[in-house]
């Protein structure tokens, strides 16, 4: 039984790491803009497809696939912000950018459906079927890669936010955009940077999720609802809270599957979300904002 | 990794997507016309059904419209029913109001079919189903719905008996999506298997939003000596389950002992996507491409000529649906009511998937539409000829 508990712990951490990667971009955008990006799921899907095609074109070079997905995601974030989001935000209406993200989401989904078709793709990397076994425990090299890439990404993001000027500027804008502007920080530049980082993260998380997901043009929507729940449980806009919540949700999934019933996973996760909202509305770790400092 | 060349896959996928934007097959205006509505999942996780159904239906329509049947030609219009009750109902209402069909084919998913049945009954339009397995579809009182494939009881009892008697299985784990069809199929298998003397070690249901099946595979691995794993899911999740069971060392592809059992839910080509994980997988297909009957060989030839690919069972059953409607028209049907009556009187229709004879609840009673296939190490099939 101990082996099974340990195995499910590993399974939960792998899935949780994937959720964290997806949720980080969401929480970054919310933290800086106090906006929800509904197109995030579709950038995840696009990242998965970019990684799929690049990996195939380069004879199985999955790392190139991840890099391309990151770049394409970031470029799409820049394009989205420059062409749509920033102009709408400058009109001073908070609803318009929100609706725009829904529009971009539908547009991306249908474009991918038209170009790629509805039939699921089998995205196996050279590491998907390479299984490592010891002492009754098993995991694929792909799972190991997910943990490693997630840890490095989280570490880099954390370091960027804590120790670089741009990271500090980003946090300043997220706490009080006007005051940050008075301190010489260009909020528009920071918003653009946030979009690029969040979308690059989405693209990369798509590359990591692609081999796990049922890869269709709707693939991202399967994880985005849980990513939203993670962002709320963790504390809207808080990176540390998002990481903890993502791993908790991953572990809930695996242990619920083992000891209860997989059909109960969503009930338990969303019960936790409701409990968080009722008991601690700011989430596991509250983000300091201008209204509560 | 899949070795399929990128271009070979992308171009047909793009073409098929574009094809769906043109939803009506036109006929010459002066002809008498039988209007066939198609309620097919074109979006969402079951959209591969719609893509392949449409190919089969179009091939049949083209063949029939060359000379017509009893002076009638066939016109078809499709609506996206999305394999889900609400969009299916909306699509059915749209189809009835705008196209006014004489007969409708579809849906593939049981939940969606069950949702559109009352809509069709109220409009008095016969619904000819080929892919939904829920027993509820052909319960007494559903006089406007017909099904040419075996229902979940016919399939489930047959698979369970074969698992116990031919495979000598004694322990089973049931894996299924939490839908009417998923739960129903698993339940029938479980009940029959237990009645035969077998044991169900676990009954594991899951939502369609589950992507990672490693935890489920871990649970199955922890159950000990599992002989068979009947699995009821759509292609995407089916693929992930098979791979996860392989990684957990449960099934033959992963060096284990268990055999996965599947149904017609999975499309052809599943094995190529799953790779060696599919080794030893035994599943029902509704169409045996190795069948030597002329009707099958002609269908395969015509399909290859038109689409430059081999037909699947989904292509085949959609082809049969249209051909059965044509057979009823050949017997004198001209409108919705007479098509319904003609379908009910069907006794000896022979199609590419097998034969059709409806019972008093409009369920096809012929079992020769059930073909068992086993996946070989080179991912080809051996037809098991169990029926």
Question: What features would you describe in this structure?
Answer:
The complex is a heterodimer of chains A (293) and B (387). With 293 residues, chain A is mainly α. Chain A has a single domain (2-292), classed as ABC transporter involved in vitamin B12 uptake, BtuC (Orthogonal Bundle). Helix content of chain A is 73%, strand content 3%. Chain A has 11 helices and 2 strands. Chain A has helices spanning 2-33, 40-57, 62-89, 95-116, 141-163, 165-175, 177-182, 187-209, 219-234, 239-259, 265-279, and strands at residues 131-134, 137-140. A two-stranded antiparallel ribbon of chain A has the order 1-2. In chain A, a hairpin with a 2-residue loop joins strand 1 (131-134) and strand 2 (137-140). In chain A, helix 1 runs parallel beside helix 5 (141-163) and helix 1 runs antiparallel to helix 10. Chain A is globular and about 60 Å long. Chain B is of the alpha/beta class and 387 residues long. Chain B has 2 domains: 6-149 and 292-356, Response regulator (Rossmann fold, 3-Layer(aba) Sandwich), CATH 3.40.50.2300; 153-285 and 371-383, Rossmann fold (3-Layer(aba) Sandwich), CATH 3.40.50.2300. Helices cover 42% and strands 18% of the residues of chain B. Chain B is built from 12 helices and 15 strands. In chain B, strand 4, helix 4 (110-123) and strand 5 form a beta-alpha-beta unit. Chain B is globular and about 65 Å long. Residues 1-26 of chain B have low confidence and may be disordered. The chains are: A mainly alpha (293), B alpha/beta (387). At the A-B interface, helix 1, helix 2, helix 4, helix 9 and helix 10 of A face helix 1, helix 2, strand 8, helix 7 and helix 8 of B.
């Amino acid at each position: 039984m101990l082996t099974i508990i340990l195995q499910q712990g590993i399974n939960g951490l792998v899935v949780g790491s994937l959720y964290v990667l997806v949720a980080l971009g969401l929480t970054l955008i919310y933290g800086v803009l106090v906006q929800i990006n509904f197109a995030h799921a579709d950038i995840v899907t696009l990242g998965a497809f970019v990684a799929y095609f690049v990996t195939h074109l380069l004879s199985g070079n999955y790392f190139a696939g991840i890099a391309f997905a990151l770049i394409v995601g970031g470029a799409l974030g820049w394009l989205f912000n420059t062409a749509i989001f920033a102009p709408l935000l400058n009109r001073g209406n908070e609803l318009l950018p929100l609706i725009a993200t829904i529009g971009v989401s539908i547009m991306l989904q249908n474009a991918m459906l038209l170009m790629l078709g509805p039939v699921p793709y089998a995205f196996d990397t050279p590491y998907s079927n390479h299984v490592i076994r010891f002492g009754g425990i098993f995991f694929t090299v792909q799972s190991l890669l997910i943990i490693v890439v997630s840890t490095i990404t989280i570490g880099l993001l954390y370091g960027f936010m804590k120790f670089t000027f741009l990271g500090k500027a980003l946090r300043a804008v997220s706490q009080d955009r006007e005051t940050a502007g008075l301190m010489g920080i260009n909020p528009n530049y920071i918003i653009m940077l946030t979009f690029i980082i969040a979308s690059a993260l989405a693209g990369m998380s798509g590359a990591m999720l692609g081999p796990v997901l049922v890869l269709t043009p709707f693939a991202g929507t399967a994880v985005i609802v849980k990513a939203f729940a993670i962002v709320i449980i963790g504390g809207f806009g808080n990176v540390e809270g998002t990481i903890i919540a993502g791993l908790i949700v991953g572990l809930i999934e695996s242990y619920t599957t083992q000891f209860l019933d997989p059909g109960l996973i969503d009930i338990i996760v969303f019960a936790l979300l409701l409990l968080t909202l009722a008991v601690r509305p700011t989430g596991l770790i509250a983000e300091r904002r201008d209204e509560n400092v | 990794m899949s070795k399929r060349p990128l271009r070979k896959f992308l171009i047909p996928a793009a073409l098929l997507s574009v094809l769906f934007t043109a939803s009506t097959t036109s006929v010459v205006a002066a002809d008498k016309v039988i209007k066939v509505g198609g309620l097919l999942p074109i979006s969402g996780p079951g959209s591969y059904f719609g893509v392949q159904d449409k190919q089969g239906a179009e091939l049949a329509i083209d063949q029939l419209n060359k000379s017509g049947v009893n002076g009638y030609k066939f016109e078809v219009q499709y609506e996206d029913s999305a394999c889900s009750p609400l969009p299916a109902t909306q699509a059915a209402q749209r189809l009835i109001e705008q196209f006014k069909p004489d007969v409708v084919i579809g849906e593939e998913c049981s939940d969606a079919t069950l949702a559109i049945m009352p809509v069709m009954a109220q409009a008095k339009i016969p619904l000819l189903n080929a892919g939904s397995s829920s027993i509820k579809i052909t319960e007494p009182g559903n006089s406007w719905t017909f099904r040419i494939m075996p229902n979940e009881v016919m399939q489930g009892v047959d698979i369970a008996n074969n698992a116990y008697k031919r495979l000598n299985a004694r322990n089973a784990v049931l894996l299924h999506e939490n839908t009417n069809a998923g739960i129903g199929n698993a339940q029938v298998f479980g009940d029959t298997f237990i009645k035969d003397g077998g044991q169900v070690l676990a009954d594991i249901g899951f939502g369609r939003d589950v992507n990672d099946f490693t935890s489920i595979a871990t649970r199955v691995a922890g159950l000990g000596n599992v002989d068979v794993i009947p699995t009821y899911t759509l292609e995407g999740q089916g693929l992930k389950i098979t791979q996860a069971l392989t990684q957990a060392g449960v099934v033959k592809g992963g060096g284990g002992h268990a055999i996965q059992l599947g149904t017609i839910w999975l499309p052809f080509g599943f094995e190529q996507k799953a790779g060696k994980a599919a080794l030893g997988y035994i599943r029902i297909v509704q169409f045996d491409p190795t069948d030597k009957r002329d009707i099958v060989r002609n269908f395969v030839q015509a399909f290859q000529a038109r689409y430059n690919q081999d037909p699947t069972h989904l292509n085949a059953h959609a082809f049969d649906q249209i051909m059965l409607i044509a057979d009823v028209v050949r017997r004198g049907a001209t409108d919705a009511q007479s098509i319904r009556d003609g379908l009910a009187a069907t006794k000896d229709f022979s199609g590419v998937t097998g034969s059709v004879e409806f019972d008093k609840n409009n369920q096809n009673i012929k079992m020769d539409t059930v073909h068992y296939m086993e996946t070989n190490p080179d991912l080809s099939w051996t037809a098991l000829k169990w029926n």
